[in-house]
Specification:
Elements (H helix, E strand, L loop, with lengths): L2 H17 L9 E2 L2 E2 L2 E2 L1 E2 L8 E2 L2 H15 L3 H4 L12 H8 L6 E3 L3 H12 L8 E5 L4 H13 L4 H4 E4 L10 H11 L3 E7 L11 H10 L3 E5 L11 H4 L3 E4 L14 E4 L45 H17 L1 H22 L4 E3 L12 E5 L3 H13 L2 E2 L1 E3 L3 E4 L10 H13 L1
Parallel strand pairs: 4-15, 7-8, 7-9, 9-10, 10-11
Antiparallel strand pairs: 1-5, 2-3, 6-12, 11-12, 13-14, 14-17, 16-17
Helix pairs in contact: 1-14, 2-11, 4-11, 5-6, 8-9
Length: 425
């Protein structure tokens, strides 16, 4: 493979960077160093980079705590009492929801359990939960434990839909078929927005329509979709969704997560695990014994908001507002498309791409399998790390590379290919 070929890709990448209307956003982030240079950081699907403004936002809250104590709930620079409301509008815009349908709270798995308390109500006839085979372990653990909590046997009531395509993805036909054949047994469809290992994204509106037509409720895990895809949760019609904020949303390790509850459930009398902060705001401080939920997603809150965890999310969402999800998605398609083109031209004998080729069926992530098996794959992954190229590894044999439009540059992509060339000699 000629150096001239790679130089042509470098020239094309430089031209794309020069024309990129979002190029300046890279300067809003701390890119970890590698020697005298910066890492090629392709791991936003696992942990997003730190926005530069986060440190100041955290110091503001610490200063208010030091200066005001409890009065910072009402008189701080960003008063703590309504603090979760400061991210509501931008969070709703990010996922295509109405403001009252979203809330930032807890962690993803905690929110998933809270949602299943309300939206998984099994009966002798409808007792099953449908998930994808190979779901992220935390989701599977949560689902299985909910089944057992209700006295159900997962061997009977957990339906796992296996991939049916040669590339290991799941077709809409397969989803339609399982709902047509077993829909009367299924109480809840719990599906990913993007499958974490393959990088396949799904048509959330179509899945919701199919499931609702069978009388099933629908929830989505958007851990790999929020901040990655242009979502339209309200219009898609799912009953609920949950996501984390430490991946594409760049809110830091263990960041406060998000939750969506569709507006049709805003005044729901569904059972829920209640907490004081979910009580109706107008009467919360009367400290009455009867729980009266705040309408909308806020009514599923348990405790007062974690200010030091919400501050980084507030900063990051402001960046998303400025950039616009439509522009970010357009750049993402270009980035991932350029990486795919380089790999197919230069490295098809070394790397196979597991993620769908159709840009409408994937986000930022390309999942790569290295020819030669797991040992060769680990060898490449570790070699890349020595060169300051950071992706992530998923057993048994997948390297995930995710160029992220807020801070990755087109010029980084040919250098990834050059490193793979150097590894194989």
């Amino acid at each position: 493979m000629s150096g001239g070929g790679l130089d042509a890709w470098r020239e094309r990448a430089r031209a794309l960077d020069a024309a990129d209307p979002l190029a300046s956003f890279r300067g809003e982030f701390h890119v970890p160093p590698h020697g005298d240079a910066e890492q090629l950081y392709f791991c936003g699907n696992s942990l997003g980079l730190q926005p530069r403004a986060v440190r100041g936002a955290l110091l503001d809250e610490l200063d208010d705590w030091a200066r005001l104590g409890v009065e910072a709930h009402f008189h701080g620079k960003h008063p703590w009492m309504p603090y979760h409301g400061f991210v509501r509008d931008s969070l709703a815009a990010l996922v295509g929801a109405e403001p009252g349908e979203v809330v930032a709270m807890n962690s993803l798995s905690a929110n998933l359990h809270l949602m299943m308390v309300s939206f998984f109500r099994p009966t002798p006839q409808r007792h099953a939960i449908l998930i994808e085979a190979g779901a992220f372990p935390s989701d599977r653990y949560a689902v299985e434990s909910q089944l057992r909590f209700h006295g159900l046997d997962p061997a009977r009531s957990l339906i796992e839909l296996a991939p049916d395509a040669d590339d290991g993805t799941i077709s809409m036909h397969a989803i339609e078929q399982v709902l047509a054949s077993r829909g009367s047994e299924i109480a809840l469809v719990l599906w990913p927005g993007v499958q974490y290992r393959s990088g396949q994204d799904f048509d959330l509106a179509a899945i919701t329509r199919l499931a609702h037509a069978q009388g099933c409720l629908v929830g989505f895990d958007l851990a790999h979709a929020a901040g990655n895809l242009a979502l339209t949760l309200h219009d898609d019609g799912a009953d609920f969704a949950v996501w984390c904020s430490y991946k594409y949303l760049n809110a830091g390790p263990g960041a406060v997560a998000g939750c969506f509850v569709h507006a049709r459930h805003a005044h729901s009398d569904r059972p829920r695990f209640a907490g004081w902060w979910g009580h109706d705001q107008a009467s919360r401080f009367r400290m009455g014994p009867e729980f009266v939920p705040t309408p909308g997603a806020d009514g599923w809150q348990l405790s007062n908001p974690p200010i030091l965890a919400l501050a980084p999310l507030r900063v990051s969402l402001a960046l998303f507002q400025r950039a616009g999800m439509a522009g970010l998605r357009a750049k993402s398609v270009q980035l991932t498309g350029l990486l795919e083109a380089i790999l197919r031209e230069r490295l098809a004998d070394a790397l196979s791409i597991l993620t769908p080729a159709n840009p409408a069926a994937r986000g930022c992530q390309l999942s790569l399998r290295v020819a030669g098996g797991r040992e060769r794959g680990r060898s490449l992954f570790e070699f890349l790390a020595t060169r300051g190229i950071i992706g992530d590894w998923r057993e048994p044999d997948v390297i995930r590379i995710s160029p992220t439009p807020l801070y990755n540059r087109f010029a980084e992509l040919p250098e990834f290919a050059a490193a793979v060339d150097a590894w194989r000699g």
